[in-house]
């Protein structure tokens, strides 16, 4: 599939990217190359192939989901610009 300059201009506008007119032909070529690569991937037969997250099978390390204070409340609050009674203090924004 080939992308023309008009399509490249439209894609750049939709992506909110300022592209000078002189760079649009090169951008169109890059988009065409990307779509060509995707077309190559679509030609690969993946029937019966299990999806994978890694090249080596491994189980993710798990820990119990327990709510804690992090074990360092004093050190954490020391970085706050304003802390009161063991909490971050923020300015009131709603009346």
UniProtKB/TrEMBL annotation:
Residue stretches in coiled coil: none
UniProt KW ATP-binding keyword: yes
InterPro entries xrefs: Asp/Glu-ADT_sf_sub_c (IPR036113), GatC (IPR003837)
MF terms in GO: asparaginyl-tRNA synthase (glutamine-hydrolyzing) activity; ATP binding; glutaminyl-tRNA synthase (glutamine-hydrolyzing) activity; transferase activity
Catalytic EC class: ligase
GO BP field: glutaminyl-tRNAGln biosynthesis via transamidation; regulation of translational fidelity; translation
UniProt-listed Enzyme Commission number(s): 6.3.5.-
UniProt keyword terms in alphabetical order: ATP-binding, Ligase, Nucleotide-binding, Protein biosynthesis, Transferase
Catalysed transformations (reactions): L-glutamyl-tRNA(Gln) + L-glutamine + ATP + H2O = L-glutaminyl-tRNA(Gln) + L-glutamate + ADP + phosphate + H(+); L-aspartyl-tRNA(Asn) + L-glutamine + ATP + H2O = L-asparaginyl-tRNA(Asn) + L-glutamate + ADP + phosphate + 2 H(+)
Pfam families for the chain: GatC (PF02686)
Homology family: Belongs to the GatC family.
Subunit comment: Heterotrimer of A, B and C subunits.
Functional note: Allows the formation of correctly charged Asn-tRNA(Asn) or Gln-tRNA(Gln) through the transamidation of misacylated Asp-tRNA(Asn) or Glu-tRNA(Gln) in organisms which lack either or both of asparaginyl-tRNA or glutaminyl-tRNA synthetases. The reaction takes place in the presence of glutamine and ATP through an activated phospho-Asp-tRNA(Asn) or phospho-Glu-tRNA(Gln).
Name the UniProt record assigns to this protein: Aspartyl/glutamyl-tRNA(Asn/Gln) amidotransferase subunit C
Organism: Octadecabacter arcticus 238
Gene: gatC
